[in-house]
């Protein structure tokens, strides 16, 4: 059977966006933090992270590489599906991309949101964003669907496992004796609770990925490796509880407990954007060095072959379901596939919050 992506006539890669040069940094940060109550001091601090890299986030180039890799995989499989790219917080903005796509005749879009795990920040906020873009465009908007969260896609998990194995091999004596520190973006406890209302929560999604990778590593090593899940990049009011432990505190605790080598595995991120490039490669690696721990940072899934192949498989499966064909869905771990359409009330900012902000590809509140 030849593969095809109908009823979709374009793939939208929808991402966060980031500054390209010094003058972009403050306007970008204002876009990101509008209405979020993030203290000025935190903004200045995060601005410094960007200035440390010449005012430029690596995220835009990484998204262009992702687009190119998806195009290449689609072409290899002889599937006609143009790939376009739009962001929430910086150029090219999603609304502009969608307007152009529609002008070129695109009627129905499948969207890949570049966050693997479901939470307000990684999913509902994108659904709100896409609904707002659709409203703004009116009759000039294509119909938009969104791919389900892909954290437990076997390709994503495999690509993370490969990267961790490679990082482990780069340590003196190899991965044997290393502690695996899985890392993801921290979120407020209230956002965590809200993520768990209609299905497994943000933390539980990561714990499931960790369990699968731990099991694979244990099988290869002949014995389990110790591991843990830690968090980076917390912001907001310091009095507000966010998911812990912070990766730096955790590394210090591991040193106290006698750990001498670690692999830092950023399973929460798909590319080496600022959270990885600064919060892990500058801060966390420095913390490890200060405590005499040998550390290797595993790569993100980036454009690794199993990841890209898995994404294209997911897109074709979704397209088939939209055509009315039941197709088998393969997932890693114990949680199963998330629904194509997010259930009512899923992934709010807080579990007690009903904002009435419209969303697409999810039932409205
Ligand atoms: C879960 C999650 C992901 C998903 C993981 C993923 O998709 O990879 C993610 C991605 C990203 N977050 C990013 C940047 C920022 N996030 C901020 C703020 C926040 N993030 C949060 C959570 C997440 N964020 C939260 C709960 C806040 C607090 C305010 C709010 O509720 O929104 C702020 C404001 C300053 C600060 O507070 O740090 C910035 C600048 C970039 C771009 C990086 C680059 O430029 O390379 C990316 C990909
Ligand atoms: Fe963020």
Question: Can you describe this structure?
Answer:
By secondary structure, this protein is of the alpha/beta class. Helix content is 43%, strand content 12%. It contains eleven helices and eight strands. The strands form two sheets. Strands 2-1-3-4 form a four-stranded parallel beta sheet, with helices on both faces. The chain has a four-stranded parallel beta sheet with strand order 6-5-7-8, sandwiched between helices. α3 crosses α11 (305-322) and α6 crosses α8. It binds coproporphyrin III and fe (ii) ion (FE2). Residues 16, 18, 29, 32-33, 36, 38, 42, 46, 57, 59, 114-115, 119, 121-122, 185, 187, 233, 235-236, 268-269, 273-275 line the site of coproporphyrin III.
Largest beta sheet, briefly? 4 strands, parallel
Strand order of the largest sheet: 2-1-3-4
Morphology:
globular
Oligomeric state of the chains present here: single chain
| Total helical elements | 11
Helix/strand order: EHHHEHEHEHEHHEHEHEH
Helix content: 40-55%
Please state roughly what percent of the residues sit in beta strands, choosing from under 5%, 5-15%, 15-25%, 25-35%, 35-45% or over 45%.
5-15%
Query: Which residues sit in consecutive blocks of at least 5 with pLDDT less than 50?
Result: none
What class, by secondary structure content?
A: alpha/beta
* Radius of gyration, CA atoms, in whole angstroms: 20 Å
Instruction: Report the bound ligands by name, code or SMILES.
Output: coproporphyrin III, fe (ii) ion
Mean pLDDT: 96
How many DSSP-defined strands?
8
**First-last Cα distance:** 40 Å
Catalytic activity: Fe-coproporphyrin III + 2 H(+) = coproporphyrin III + Fe(2+)
Protein name: Coproporphyrin III ferrochelatase
EC number: 4.99.1.9
Pathway: Porphyrin-containing compound metabolism; protoheme biosynthesis
């Amino acid at each position: 059977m030849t593969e095809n992506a109908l009823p979709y006539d374009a793939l939208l890669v929808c991402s966060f966006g980031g500054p390209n040069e010094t003058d972009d940094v403050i306007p970008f940060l204002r876009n990101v933090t509008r209405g979020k109550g993030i203290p000025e001091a935190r903004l200045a601090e995060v601005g410094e992270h960007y200035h440390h890299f010449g005012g430029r986030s690596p995220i835009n180039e990484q998204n262009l590489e992702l687009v190119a890799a998806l195009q290449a995989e689609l072409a290899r499989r002889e599937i006609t599906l143009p790939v376009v790219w739009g962001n929430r917080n910086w150029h090219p903005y999603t609304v502009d991309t969608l307007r152009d796509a529609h002008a070129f005749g695109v009627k129905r879009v499948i969207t890949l949101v570049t966050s693997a795990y479901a939470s307000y920040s990684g999913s509902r906020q994108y659904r709100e964003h896409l609904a707002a873009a659709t409203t703004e465009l009116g009759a000039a908007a294509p119909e938009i669907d969104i791919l389900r969260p892909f954290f437990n896609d076997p390709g994503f998990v495999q690509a993370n496992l490969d990267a961790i194995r490679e990082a482990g091999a780069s340590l003196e004596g190899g991965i044997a004796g290393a502690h695996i520190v899985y890392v993801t973006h921290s979120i407020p406890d209230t956002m965590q609770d809200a993520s768990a209302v209609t299905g497994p929560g943000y933390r539980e999604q990561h714990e499931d990925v960790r369990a699968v990778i731990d099991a694979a590593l244990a099988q290869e090593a002949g014995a389990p490796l110790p591991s843990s899940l830690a968090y980076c990049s917390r912001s907001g009011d310091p009095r507000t509880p966010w998911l812990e432990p912070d990766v730096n505190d955790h590394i210090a605790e591991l040193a106290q407990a006698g750990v001498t080598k670690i692999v830092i595995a950023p399973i929460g991120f798909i590319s080496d954007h600022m959270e990885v490039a600064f919060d892990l490669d500058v801060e966390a690696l420095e913390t490890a060095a200060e405590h005499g721990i040998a550390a290797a940072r595993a790569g993100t899934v980036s454009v690794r072959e199993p990841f890209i192949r898995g994404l294209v498989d997911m897109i074709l499966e979704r397209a088939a379901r939209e055509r009315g064909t039941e197709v088998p869905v393969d997932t890693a771990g114990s949680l199963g596939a998330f629904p194509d359409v997010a259930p009512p009330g899923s992934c709010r900012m807080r579990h007690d919050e009903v904002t009435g902000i419209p969303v697409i590809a999810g039932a409205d509140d």
